[in-house]
Amino acid sequence: MKKNMNYGDDYKFIPATSVQSGVSQEILPDLYAHTIQIANIVFYSIPGSNDFVLIDAGMPKSAEEIIAVAENRFGENAKAKAIILTHGHFDHVGAIIELVEHWQVPVFAHALELPYLTGEQDYPEPDPSVDSGLVAKMSPMFPNEAIDLGEFVQELQSDGTVPFMEGFKWIHTPGHTPGHVSLFRERDGALIAGDAFVTVKQESLYKVFTQEKEVNGPPQYLTPDWDAAFESVKKLAALKPSIAVTGHGVPMSGAELTNGLEKLVEQFQQIALPKNAK
Ligand SMILES: [Zn+2]
Ligand SMILES: [Zn+2]
Q1: H or E element that contains 227
Q2: pTM for the structure as a whole
Q3: 197-215: per-residue pLDDT in tens?
């Protein structure tokens, strides 16, 4: 019994890009990041094998690129063992159905994110009034309908472990979405943050294009709960990550990351909150 998976009716290619689009980067020996237009995906190498785990699934219509990057890095018949989603926004699940079909892999997400991944609940409409930046202004065209992964998506285990990613724990970081998670490895302080915070001002088309670095809060036009978003940023800052790859923007490490997170916590209202917050 296989239910057909589907993207919502508003699924489409989004014409936005950055200087980093198509660029891959080794973050750590077992973490490899790749930028699809304006969103990042991460490959985790499973020790002692050619297998890998994919974290997030890129922009709409990017499956061919993702498979090519994977084969280039892990070998021609390399297969994902699992796909972990930080959350279900269109720019993190854009290629997921083709990838699930290609690799026949399970998808894992937080229990509170499942309604958006099983066709039950749409995300709120993006809010273009949050900022004068052009990405914010174009956000009403972004897909916000629930996708349906049917039986391919399942809940992350409640003990915090991450399938096939030994040493990593998932951390609930809601605010941007109800079931948003970040992945953290205590041993070396590696953080895969998703959109809990990002390293670019995602509302600005110019800054997104140039990928100018700054630690910022979650993309404003798609963030409904700012109290929770602030708590999540504090939670991640308290972990003192040594290196972070975020859903948008370039990877950051060391003092730049520490200071950026400290400043974001201290000045959350000025830096992260929408100027026109209702
Ligand atoms: Zn998002
Ligand atoms: Zn995003």
Answers
A1: helix 226-238
A2: 0.97
A3: 999 999 999 899 999 999 9
